[in-house]
Write a structure and sequence with these properties.
There is one protein chain. This protein is mainly beta. It contains two helices and eleven strands, in the order αββαβββββββββ. Strand 3 and strand 4 form a beta hairpin.
Length: about 150
């Protein structure tokens, strides 16, 4: 199954609002899951040989804005647009992209997800202060997992 077909299936799942779709064709199978609480996620592709950067989803497409009842300030939860391994820094010897309490601007790289041997930079969809880093460095994560909360 080529990437165009997978993208079309993803679009159909988004438009229909269903939570899960599995399609099999011969010995190929594709399963698309829409995580609960994540809206407008585009191009989440299952492992497909030869996937290029077109299948990478920006964090702004996978961010969810939630109300924080404790202080009535909207918080942005940056969620994983794909499954992979979460990294806080560009390499083991480098400083983390962000720390709790740090101010970030929209478009700043906040972490990396390694998926299918590709390093995918995850960018802040909005500006804010890093309130929480929900995932430990080097941890395997699933699609839709909460990564970083901006307050």
């Amino acid at each position: 199954m080529d990437l165009r077909k997978v993208k079309k299936l993803i679009e159909l799942v988004e438009e229909s609002g269903i939570a899960e779709l599995e399609v099999s064709s011969g010995d190929e199978s594709v399963r698309i899951l829409m995580p609960s609480g994540v809206t407008a996620v585009q191009s989440i592709a299952p492992p497909v040989v030869g996937v290029d950067s077109e299948a990478v989803v920006s964090a702004s497409e996978a961010a969810v804005v939630q109300a924080d009842p404790a202080n009535s300030v909207a918080a942005t939860v940056i969620r994983a647009p794909m499954a992979g391994t979460f990294y806080r820094a560009p390499n083991p010897d480098a400083a983390p992209f962000v720390e709790i309490g740090q101010v970030v601007a929209a478009g700043d790289v906040v972490c990396i997800i390694e998926s299918m041997k590709m390093m995918n930079e995850i960018k802040a969809p909005t500006g804010g202060v890093v309130a929480d880093i929900a995932t430990a460095n080097g941890t395997p994560i699933g699609t839709g997992a909460a990564l970083i909360t901006l307050g």
